[in-house]
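In response to a reviewer's request, we include the raw inputs and outputs for one of the modeled complexes. The three entities were modeled together in a single run.
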Amino acid sequence: MGITLKIKKYFKDFSLDVNWETGDELTVLFGYSGAGKSLTFQAIAGISKPDEGCIEVNGRVVFDSARLIDLPPQKRSIGYVFQDLALFPHMTVKNNILYGAPDISSTERAGRAAELMDMFRLAGLENRLPSQISGGQKQRVALARALIRRPSALLLDEPFSAVDLPIRIEMRNYLRHIQSSQKIPVILITHDPDEAIELADRMIIYSSGKVIGVGAPEDVLGTVSTVGSERAASTNIILSDTALTGRPVFSIR
Amino acid sequence: MDDAALFSVRLSLQVAAVATFFVAIVGVGAAYLLARRHFRGRELLNVLLTLPLVLPPTVTGYYLVVLFGRNGAIGRLIYEWTGWTLMFTWYAAVLASFVVALPLMIQTARSAIESVDRNVVNASYMLGHSEFVTAVRVVLPMARRGIATGIVLSFARAMGEFGATIMLAGNLPGKTDTMPLAIYSLAGSGDWSKANSMVLVLTIVSGVFLYLSNRNRKGTA
Amino acid sequence: MSKNERARMKLIARLILLAVILGASPVFAGPAEMTVSAAISLKNVFEEIGRLYEARHEETRVVFNFGASGDLVRQIEGGAPVDIFASAAEKDLDEAAKKGFIIAGSRTDFASNDLVLIVPKASKAAIKDFEGLSQPAVKRIAVGDPGTVPAGRYAEEILRHYRLTAATKDKLIFAQNVRQALDYVARGEVDAGIVYKTDALLRSKEVKIEAVAPESSHTPAVIPIAVVKGTNSEAAAEAFISLVVSPEGKKILQKYGFKAAAP
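The model returned the following structure tokens for the whole complex.
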């Protein structure tokens, strides 16, 4: 199973027009900020409505403008980790996680929460507030909260951008583990080419509201350089962006 | 202080407490709708609910008399059904304080609710929670400081309400004369020493409430 | 909703309202209440007369509602449960009568007020009479706004009577009501003021009465009282007004500086 998506959304000076699909794998949405990656996530999650198109998650149509289908976010069963994590600041770590599974019995919920807290090494922090734990711990809480209801897909909107490299590496390991153990589509938005290359089974490259490349990282980055001149210009933007971050310049294999 | 003065102090506290109770319920509900829902007539509702903040209270009181007097649109219905009129009762003082204090509650609660991170609300929806559950368990708890400030301000405003109250509730000694009305009566009949001591009581009580609201606002979550 | 249901809802609503009202009115079973809306300037007089009335009519409890005469008219218009209305000047009672809220023939002008010239107690200016207002040392004179405040209109007439209109034209400070004019004088914000004698007496610590305007200098500042339409007990209301104009009522009026009307 996976996610199939074909949507359009128009704004005054920007339009999103994308069409891609992905399976039970780890997909990276890669591109310059403002390219429409977060907007795509919001459309999948049901918190922003496309003007037209359809979205299918694990074989279930969650949005179809032609058939007037538009499931509310509550019914889409998608785990979503926001860039700022969006933890509930007034709830303890434990309650943040428990809050993520409203539809199951309290004993089962407590069992799952214990399991997740164990997996994400959160034991001992149960009664802390989000303001009382470290950045890496917060990320693990956000992941645990998104996973407790066993979502049919997991979306991560640059959740690791604000933490140091060692924690990022740790989180990447978690992601790979989650994807392989849960067998659900996991999609990650990132700016970081190293992260993209290291994690992605498949890469989808966005530029100005369009997809300019889909495939395995090594293929996509090759393809991108050979597409038309206009698109190549977009790729240059990506490359110069990378150069600006001061990390080793993107290597095209 | 004599019995009449004690009555006024007690009545003021009672009126302010009851009015604030309803202000808190209605105000938080209205603030939530205004902050998070887009519906037709939203701005009109906002203007209508905020007007008592800027209108002279006597004018607000006049509107209330026009609505709730025995000859008024609502007052007539109540009178025809029950033979009772709201005017010149302590309920009228509650209603006047309610209407005048409500905008303070709505404005403070609304900005507190609006400042709740959109993503946090979305996160709750994504986790399968309805808007109502999200409002009760996420939005309102996160806006609690603003709501608490609104409640305290409303109480202080209700305690000091004069113009609308004297119109709708009248200034009936021993029945509807809250502290501000009693001060007006005492000054009007030249009873300056009693008036001054009640001014002092009102100032201290209001000051304490404002201090509490300020301390509450400065506190950390 | 069916007819039956609607009737039932109505009944329930009535019962709830009734319960609320009963619970809130400790006087429900006590003596009948009579509400007297009166100008705030009549508070001392009427409270004393009210006590006298209650002593004689144990079946009735007198409830007062003191406020600005204009507001009292608005309340009566709105349907406030008022039995008797006494305004500070004719204007407001006239308005209520014109709009049909007063029982015809029930009106009595029971008292009148003197207009007096006052100065701040600490004032050093030698203003001994109304003519003194023309001297250059007198810069500001507080009066009620003649357009809306009856006392201001009387003050205007007095100045005209003394041929001071031109000399004081630029000195007049118009107050929103006569109490405010009095307050300006009491606080020494102005050099002099023209106000009701009864009001000035209430602040005798702060203001000095220099002259009383003769009756011939202005329209009489009469104070009217009348029974309001829709009263629960016209007889009780009439009895109250009778007491106000009785010799005992007059004595109380005079005690507070009012001039009782001639019988």
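As requested, we also summarize the result in words. The two ends of chain C are 64 Å apart (CA to CA). Chain C touches chain B at residues 10, 13-14, 17-18, 21, 24-25, 35, 37, 40-41, 43-44, 47, 63-67, 71, 74-75, 77-81, 179, 201-203, 230 (CB under 8 Å).
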